[in-house]
């Protein structure tokens, strides 16, 4: 295996490995999601929150718990708590797809944005 391919494989492995003593994922509670949604201000161009299927899962990034959400306007509206592998992976769609990362320790959205358009 070439050096660049080995480095890419190591980076992929490192990014998928949990930090020592912490799980790589966790399950968010409906109460946490309701608290976050109560304070969300959606980006310009987005529809009302209740028009989106909102897919949430918990992750650990840089040793910190984050709530990750992908809101999809064309799916079933409402909250869906899913495993990371079950979350939609949509790379375009403008504001019909909104991405959220919420730092649970800071109690802060970091970031909330609409997808680009293909």
UniProtKB/TrEMBL annotation:
Residues 1-20 form the signal peptide. It comes from the Bacteria. Keywords: Signal. This is Uncharacterized protein. It comes from Fulvimonas soli. The lineage of its organism: Bacteria, Pseudomonadati, Pseudomonadota, Gammaproteobacteria, Lysobacterales.
